[in-house]
Amino acid sequence: MKRIVLLVLTMLSILFSATCFAHTMPESEMFLRGIGPKTTLAQVKTVYGEPVSKDEFKGEGVRVVTYVYGPLFKVFGRTYAEDISPDEKLTVVGYMVKDKNITTPSGFSVGMPYQAVVKKFGSGEKFKDYNGRIGYIYGFNNDVKTLTFYVDKEDKISEINLGTDF
Fold first, then answer.
1. Distance of CA 6 to CAs 1, 16, 18, Å?
2. Contact 39, 90 (CB under 8 A)
3. 78 close to 64: Cβ distance less than 8 angstroms
4. Number of structural domains, the chain?
5. Does 2 fall in a domain?
6. Domain boundaries, position 42
7. Domain CATH code at residue 144
């Protein structure tokens, strides 16, 4: 019986360590010019200026404000639906980048080969989204925060997304 328990514990340890060390990307890679999880939309304006437009969604218990800097760059702030704080106080929970001039701290941008990311940090978890796009997701804090690199047919980065929970 002791051998079985020991075997099960060893297998679980190997499984969890393989999951934890699947990539070496640091959380700092999620920040674009200092903008990332737990920063505010006010800080976004300080770095990127006034957005071209702003979208707001309220429903299902959340309020989401999107700062649109054009079709190639958007930043999302979120709070609870009842929260009536000014937009600038909302916490950044995500962004969508298709602009090749916006880079991660390591210099990754749209148009670069995804293999450059793999070479530096290892592979992300490959998936196909509901539109059939291929992406590689890097999870942090038990996947509460994720950085996703979508790729085109040539395996070049076509979009970079940050996603976080509250």
1. 9, 15, 18
2. no
3. yes
4. 1
5. no
6. 23-164
7. 3.40.33.10
Contact between 41 and 67 (Cβ < 8 Å): yes
Distance (Å, whole) CA 97 – CA 159 = 6
Say how far apart CA 84 and CA 90 lie, in whole Å: 10
DSSP 8-state assignment for residue 32: B
How many Å apart are CA 124 and CA 25, to the nearest integer?
Answer: 9
**Confidence grade of residue 166 (pLDDT, cut at 50, 70, 90):** low
Q: What is the pLDDT of residues 87-130, one digit of tens each?
A: 999 999 999 999 999 999 999 999 999 999 999 999 999 999 98
E strand or H helix that includes residue 6:
helix 2-20
The reply to whether 33 falls in a domain is: yes
Amino acid, single-letter form, for residue 141: N
Which pair of tokens denotes residue 11?
Answer: 């297998």
Question: Is 65 contained in some domain?
Answer: yes
pLDDT in tens, 118-133: 999 999 999 999 889 9
pTM for this prediction: 0.83
In a domain, 144, yes or no: yes
- Which regions of the chain does DSSP assign to beta strands (E)? 53-59, 62-68, 73-80, 91-97, 125-128, 134-140, 145-151, 157-164
Give the residue with greater pLDDT, 142 vs 40. 40
